[in-house]
Amino acid sequence: MKSGDNTVRGVLRMLFSDLKNVEINERKEISDEKIIEIIKKNIKSRKDSVEQYTKGNRKDLASQEEKELEILEKYMPEQMGEDEIRKIVVDIVSKSEAVSASDFGRIMGAVMKEIGGNVDGNLVGGIVREELK
Fold it and tell me: Which fold has domain 6-73?
């Protein structure tokens, strides 16, 4: 905040506000997992906004949202690499003997349970689809 960067200050104030609102609604101190969940929600919102602004040919607003997205991503824990995710998916697919795309939901649930919350669900979904083909 002392640096005078208005973009960073605005993003952090909005994030702190979201965290405080959840804390007030739940009437207890929020856990680290809940904080990460709130940051993910803000990141998803920014990604959706970038997509919509790009479709609407509003590059100025899209670039602002991308800057905010970069700021929020700095506060996320290290994400698993694609190779690590692929190994886990291949292992679960082989153990479950899944053979078709109809097994997607079952496999996806097992993978997300194994991996936890520090991955992008879209990335995992893409890898699961590839491995089931």
Answer: Hypothetical Protein Yqey; Chain: A; domain1 (1.10.1510)
